[in-house]
Design goal:
Blueprint lengths: L1 H11 L1 H6 L3 H17 L3 H16 L11 H11 L4 H13 L12 H12 L5 H17 L4 H7 L3 H4 L2
Helix pairs in contact: 1-4, 3-4, 4-6, 5-6, 6-8, 7-8
């Protein structure tokens, strides 16, 4: 419940809820969110914490697309490569909620994005992971619908969505 209320607070008044905090407190809060996602064992709760984290991530980009929370991207990639299926699923969930997470580094990371999403969509053993991967790919395609380079880089994944 706390994750839901915190997310609501961030959505309604980010400046008062987070920007007014001391830098050390902001850093500690962000680190604790990532730790909590990793250690939470209940997937529905993990997703609620991920939703709160995604809301915070969304607010961490400047006008040029530079992230003020670069550790998050590393966390996302580590989760996407985890042996824990729940963490791989939450990585897809986070990417679906914040498809702009790569910011101004997106073009350089298209092959990595394709691998990340392709592994999730192609997983033969875990339906929820596949579904999360499809949602993430769809969100990313919608976000980049006018970017031909993105569409070309990911076109091989489209047929996998229907398998």
């Amino acid at each position: 419940m706390a994750a839901i209320l915190c997310r609501r607070l961030l959505v309604n008044d980010y400046a008062a809820a987070f920007e007014s905090l001391a830098d050390e407190t902001k850093t500690a809060a962000k680190q604790q969110l990532l730790i909590t996602i990793v250690h939470e064992t209940e997937q529905p709760m993990r997703k609620k914490i991920a939703d709160l984290t995604a809301e915070l991530v969304r607010m961490q980009f400047d006008d040029e697309g530079n992230s003020e929370w670069p550790e998050f991207l590393q966390f996302l990639l580590e989760c996407s490569d985890s042996n824990d299926v729940g963490l791989r699923e939450v990585a897809c969930h986070l990417f679906a909620v914040v498809p702009t997470v790569f910011g101004n580094q997106q073009a350089n990371n298209l092959p990595l994005i394709g691998q990340f999403l392709g592994r999730a969509i192609a997983d033969p053993m875990h339906y929820e992971l596949r579904a999360s991967g499809v949602r993430a790919l769809a969100a990313f395609i919608v976000q980049n619908a006018t970017e031909n380079s993105v569409l070309q880089a990911l076109k091989e994944l489209a047929p996998m969505m229907l398998q």
